[in-house]
Amino acid sequence: WARKAGPGTTRQFDQAMLRALTRRRLLEIDLEEGVRQGQFHVVYQPQVHLQSGQIIGVEALLRWQHPELGPVSPAEFIPIAEESGLIEPLGAFALSEACRTVRGWNLPLRLAVNVSPIQVERGSVIEAVEAALRGSGLPPAQLDLELVESLFLGQADQVAASISHLRGLGCGLALDDFGSGYSSLGYIPRFPFSKIKIDRSFVEHVHEDRGSAAIVRSVVELARGFDITVIAEGIETRAQEEAVRRLGCDIGQGYLYGRPMSGKELLALQHAAA
Ligand code: C2E
Ligand code: MG
Ligand code: MG
Ligand code: MG
């Protein structure tokens, strides 16, 4: 088909492909050195109690400042880190760094940290969480681990074992990006989730689209039955906030309340609010 499209088109296609491949290859190579050289840091996004408007916690999010390319998005580097296995040291870094920072604030704020399926499937998440808690002195009950849906769809004994071990430590378990993938509710009763985070794609039109509102309402209903807290992700406007609050969500997170920011900025924001 390439020949039919004409030589010009073919060359353009090849160059775009090559550029994408080159960048990916470059990032693969640089990731390892980046981890070793400490090019990663953690930023914090507030989570707000929808009834009171108070900040009740933060989500820790990784950032990579590449020496030549500048900031690289986690949407780009996390999949590469997962493929190469570097997600294990990187995920351990995010956990220990975030626990240390939040412990240092000495405020009654919860901390949520994202955990990759790879860390759970290989079991290394347990040592990473235990080391982060030990090293920081953060009480386990203050920590939520955010896990994605794909982890729960297969038959995986290692997953179930790791999950109940983490729960046994006293950590909370949040189901992240709920509804973005397979949206099967069947696995929810089988795992001890303490929170469900409704994916941004449902929050985006929740104030104007009956379908989105109906989905949010049924997630809230399901969660109530299992005593699970519901977080709405990606709230950008007051109209969205009002809609998810009315539908019964407990917590909101999104640009309306604050972008992911440095620990210092988060602390200043919290002091200004208090
Ligand atoms: P996530 O865990 O679902 O995190 C929420 C993402 O939505 C963040 O993107 C956040 O900046 C963005 N966001 C928050 N509020 C809004 C909003 O109002 N509007 C819009 N448009 N976006 C909003 P970010 O920081 O780029 O992270 C992307 C993803 O990368 C995360 O999605 C998570 O899956 C992954 N990630 C980030 N840090 C880590 C980490 O330490 N470990 C692992 N395994 N994954 C991570
Ligand atoms: Mg998350
Ligand atoms: Mg999410
Ligand atoms: Mg996401």
Automatic annotation (TrEMBL):
Top-level taxonomic group: Bacteria
Signal peptide: none
Domain EAL: 24-274
Protein name: EAL domain-containing protein
Organism: Pannonibacter tanglangensis
Range covered out of full length: 661 to 934 of 934
